[in-house]
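During the second year of the project, the team shifted from modelling isolated chains to modelling whole assemblies. The rationale, set out in the original proposal, was that interfaces cannot be judged from single-chain predictions alone. As a representative example for this report, we include one of the complexes processed in the last quarter. Its constituent sequences, exactly as entered into the pipeline, are reproduced here:
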Amino acid sequence: MSLDSVLARIDQEMPQALDRLMELLRIPSISTDPAFKDDCQTAADWLVADLQSLGVDASKRETPGHPMVVGHVDGDGPHLLFYGHYDVQPVDPLELWDRDPFDPVLEDTPTGKVIRGRGSSDDKGQLMTFVEACRAWKAVHGTLPCKITFFFEGEEESGSPSLIPFLEEHKDELSADIALVCDTSMVSRGVPSIASQLRGMLKDEFTLTGPRIDLHSGHYGGPGLNPLRELARIVDSFYDAETGRVAVEGFYEGVHEVPDEQLRQWQNCGFDEGDYLGTVGYSQPHGEKAYSTLEQQWARPTLEINGLWGGYNGVGSKTVIPSKAHCKITCRLVGDMDPDALRDKIRKHVQDRLSPDLSVEWDNDLEGSRASVMNIARPEFESARQALSDEWNREAVFTGMGGSIPVVGFFKSILELDAMLVGYANEDDQIHSPNEKYDLESFHKGIRSWARILDALT
Amino acid sequence: MSLDSVLARIDQEMPQALDRLMELLRIPSISTDPAFKDDCQTAADWLVADLQSLGVDASKRETPGHPMVVGHVDGDGPHLLFYGHYDVQPVDPLELWDRDPFDPVLEDTPTGKVIRGRGSSDDKGQLMTFVEACRAWKAVHGTLPCKITFFFEGEEESGSPSLIPFLEEHKDELSADIALVCDTSMVSRGVPSIASQLRGMLKDEFTLTGPRIDLHSGHYGGPGLNPLRELARIVDSFYDAETGRVAVEGFYEGVHEVPDEQLRQWQNCGFDEGDYLGTVGYSQPHGEKAYSTLEQQWARPTLEINGLWGGYNGVGSKTVIPSKAHCKITCRLVGDMDPDALRDKIRKHVQDRLSPDLSVEWDNDLEGSRASVMNIARPEFESARQALSDEWNREAVFTGMGGSIPVVGFFKSILELDAMLVGYANEDDQIHSPNEKYDLESFHKGIRSWARILDALT
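Output from the structure prediction step:
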């Protein structure tokens, strides 16, 4: 009964909820680029003010990087910690956006209304689903449903450098019974999903140096070592074309096969392979040939090249043999893969393949995080699964996830806190890409879903 | 006697000659980048005015690209056509320059005074050696030594798109007995050199497209085809690591071995392999293992990668699988290699290696030119060789050259004009690189050398 009033309030408040989200989306809080440092501050201030309007004791906490936002509200029943991040990915290549990434708009599309703009899905839109659910609850009941700690980060897209020290320093303040995280997607349109495992992440970057200076390809073309050619050789050596496997020695240490039982579940969780591949222009999967698309995405590790550059890339041509070539790498980790051990293996692989007169430098400021598996035996998972099934009129499923949410591992290792990941994004949201969007249905039903979950947990 | 007066005049006029060169170097006439279109006009205007000050009937000739400068002066004896180019290479990476590339300065270095700045060596400094020789001659004799046509181009560094139509349209106006070209270097410091053969050039550029849009490496890492990884695979497939040869089928068609007699000459021409490699940080040659460094540079073809880029190259990291990857190529051609046929072979090589879901687009606006061999049996070559030997107190030599000067081929095919290439640059001039320089000795003795050659030819 009281849940119905909260749900009704949510429906009626949608225009205002949308306005609030648009306001937040207009703040270009790109965390990877120092040029947007002030905007990250602005986004944090905006969230502090919004939480305060809910009667939450909220404040901005400075870090060496971008600030955290922490808010507390007291109450009976379980103590929930809700996590989201207010920072967003860079927007390049800007020319591929159909509009200003930070001038969000509600658009009609063949699959329904969408909220278009950077961060609409990852993660501002998802973060606000929980906040709006709390707002509606408060409007109906005068209080929030239980004791809640709000914890918003501003460095998720840049490796969360300040997260570990902050968690360690505020261990007591951030203690709770369970963490709720809204930063994941649904396995398929309309299929409510709880992520039961996440891949970990390793980031690295190297620069190859050949000649001391850029050279003229007429004077040195032939005798001259070209670092771009060397980079291609080394990057290609990372892979075995036959099997699609990574060829770095020891890369698969700590990787486990998916149990048959879980594999069966996944095969029936509503994942639409054709839609998943087709929507981005693929006719087939391109990973390890011995594994299904779902396993390649959720249960197998990767070594991905995220950036490659060197020489001349301007208008026209330049007959140059450049001095340097650059490469950005990320690996997705599964099972018990150890990021630090893997970093050493990759660096050794490159070191072992350097030609005479070729040297390599590594960026040593990049983070790594292990994969994590959720404790779905906890009763909150079944309660949430039921609540989601009710809202979406479709059996909610436990899924794997290809992405990485390092905070989940740190909640466990530092705060001894289990996390439950519920998100409403769709695979076609184009997060980290031009023209990112969040379905209005994801936003609306997402808010309603949290209201139902809060009701079920309290 | 009168030659001595001209040489004396040159020595005495050096400060003014240097001021004039500095003026020309301050004009950022980068031809490959449309942003500098007006500066190319300014450089052409400057040259027209300077030639007119010598009593030359000079004018700027517009083209679809950057203008040509043509000047005529009448006289007895042979009819010489002098060619140089006033355009320069781009300056990136700008951060590697010790000063503004277009704020030239005279610097003291361990190997003597140098003129530092973009274009100081390639080709403004070299072009002005001939103009200053004419100026001194005129000051002493009241006239220039013979009938001379001056022909300055502004698109040499961008593939000379307007050159062929211009030569065809002005075939009669540009006819002469022989062309003199000052755009080459000396085989070794202090060793006067006449280039007897040049490599040709083929330029091409391609873009690989994988997914329709940039992808999140968490959502698609594994099943997703990554065009950066594909680009590395394809670029690596261009080469045979064992032999150092290019692995494109039919690449070496039209390549001839160097005759033993010529090889012996080259081996004794004063080329210092250790200096040539060591000055840029190489401990050994990196080309075809079956050939000497000199052959790799002068007599063997190359397939060089001048630019590679795709994905994220900004500050921090971005977990992206990009939609596109880009590659700029130039080939140096020798013997009878046909640029058009070679272009087809390279494109077929790439086409044959595309994975499913990977497509390629080629830039079709890039030029090619064949290699050329000079007609050193003409008497002018021996006269010039003697004049150079006198100036440098060192036997002048006929050398090969790794660079490409397409205009030489077009002079022959369109104007039926033989060319003689005499230049005073040094291998360490860092042309096409940051901190380009031209030795003051090259400039001074270069001017004196042209005076001696003019005297010898008339």
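Chain B touches chain A through 99 residues (CB under 8 Å). Residues 193 and 397 of chain B are 5 Å apart (CA to CA).
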